[in-house]
Amino acid sequence: MSGLVMIRDAKIGDADGMATVYVDAWRTTYPGMIPDKVLVRMSKRDQAMQWAHAIAARPRADAIVVAELDRHGIIGFGSCGPARRTILPQAAEIYTLYVRPGFQDRGLGRQLLHRLFERLTENELPSAVVWVLSANPARFFYEAMGGRRVAERKERLWGCDLPQTAYAWADVRTARVPKRSAREQ
Question: Which CATH number is associated with domain 5-176?
Fold first, then answer.
């Protein structure tokens, strides 16, 4: 990957790029895991509106960050904040973490997760959880990032019961984000 990647807070003007990352990542990652009709009906326009609203209306304790690369625009993003409805003890939750296909396996997910951990620390949210579809091979990324498997659940979405796995970090302030591998450099 040539050029400088900048990880920064999202702005409303980033919503179109975030929508592209989101839709492209869903369409390449989730076939066979969620109903095809969900992937077919996804709209970059609708996602851009949703992300613009999320950026504009985000609570103070939430963070939305983007990875931007010269000449390519937004190539990844993530969001976090206080844990949503859960019986788990973690104070915070990683809500989203997506990297555009073609830019994956280059260390961007690691950089974004690290920045999200920094933002949680700034907001005095010391522990975190992320929920991921159990069938998603990207779940191993969270294990590689030091997340421990702490729970499983089935959530009813789009008329299906989708198995999910939770990975948690007891203290994001001391979480060790592994160094980049030779493959990512």
Answer: 3.40.630.30
Taking CA atoms, 119 is separated from 12, 80, 114, 116, 177, in Å, by: 19, 8, 9, 5, 15
Q: Would you list the domain boundaries of the chain? A: 5-176
End-to-end CA distance of the chain: 8
* pLDDT for residue 183 is more than 90: no
Supply the pTM of this predicted model: 0.90
* 83-101 residues labelled b (16+ CB within 10 A) or e (exposed): beeeeeebbbbbbbbbbbe
Q: Is the pLDDT of residue 176 over 70?
A: no
- Across residues 174-179, what is the average pLDDT? 64
Residue 164 near residue 142 (C-beta atoms within 8 A) = no
Provide the β-strand partners of residue 76. Answer: 67, 99
Three-state secondary structure string covering 28-94: HHCECCECHHHHHHCCHHHHHHHHHHHHHHCCCCCEEEEEEECCCEEEEEEEEEECCCCCCCCCEEE
d(CA 82, CA 129): 10
